[in-house]
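Fig. S4 source data, part A: sequence.
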Amino acid sequence: MSHTEIPGERVPIRMWADPDQVEPAAMEQLRNVTRMPWTHGLAVMPDVHYGKGATVGSVIAMRDAVSPAAVGVDIGCGMTAVRTGLNAEHLPDDLRPLRSALEATIPVGFHAHDEPVDPARVPRLRSFGWDTFWAGFDDLAEAVHPRQERARRQMGTLGGGNHFLEVCLDDDGTVWLVLHSGSRNIGKELADHHISRAQALPHNQDLPDRDLAVFLSGTPEMEAYRRDLFWAQEYARRNRDVMMGLAYRVLADQVFGATFEQWISCHHNYVAEETYDGVDVLVTRKGAIRAGSGEYGIIPGSMATGTYIVKGLGNPASFNSASHGAGRRMSRNKARKTFTEADLAEQTRGVECRKDRGVVDEIPAAYKDLESVIAAQTDLVQVVAHLRQIVCVKG
């Protein structure tokens, strides 16, 4: 499917979604982006839905400016997927102990480790340079300095909401570990701090939506934001690395011969410096992954619809981007009012996971159809593998 282009005020809106199926509030957010003088281009992914300031599922290229709300408050949120050397027959028939062990090892929800995880004791850990990384905390916004100990204890934790850790099988029966998480509370606090700073700047007073407030290149405020932003993106990547190492340890304890064969990782709430049409721009992907030619990506669905491993096709019309998942079609509050625990149990049949009231808002029916989302972006990515979860850990 190719995109639909609809007029905007300064730039067109390139949409890989049906405009008639996007809620009016989200369409107005997209139009607001096109009204901003710094916007170079806007691409809209098939999982688009309403968000704070900017929609989830939007890719915004700006000249000499960046909007923190167009990144999202969970800076660096993203996915990691690892193909193991195991097959389905290596796994036990009863998967409950495996889920329990993962939940006991990796804190979920608002919980943190009792003590910071020692990277030297985490197997298969890909991150290095930990002393240098943590030394950078002293340079962050002073407002978050009291949070350092909590940030250290939250390193290697999952969080709640739509974050998850799964054991999956591909169509050949190969076992994969897949997780979705971000920069935890430290990323959110940094994002909230900088959004408030941007909103107070004089050049943002006449914007169509104050939540779209931007920092301008060459200013102290922009430099401070970029410093904190890139540190939080790195925190999120390291957080996923630690969790994947901890998950490997659990798997190896329970299943003989566990190995890691392929490791894929991608942010979907972040900023990157890129060039299009000969113009250097700052690209914010909020609920979108980079899909440059040959680059691997991860597009999940919900608790029972699995995940797609994809390769990017490098489509410049989308600023080399693709969707980050199925995307919500129903708010959390509406999902809680619409569905019951029995509905959740039915829709997650065959998956070892929580089926209680606390995760009803994550029921598969609250999300868009993943197959339709994939079908809408065949000019952005090609499918490499489809994974179906057999264990799902949620906060």
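Fig. S4 source data, part B ends here. The longest helix spans residues 220-254.
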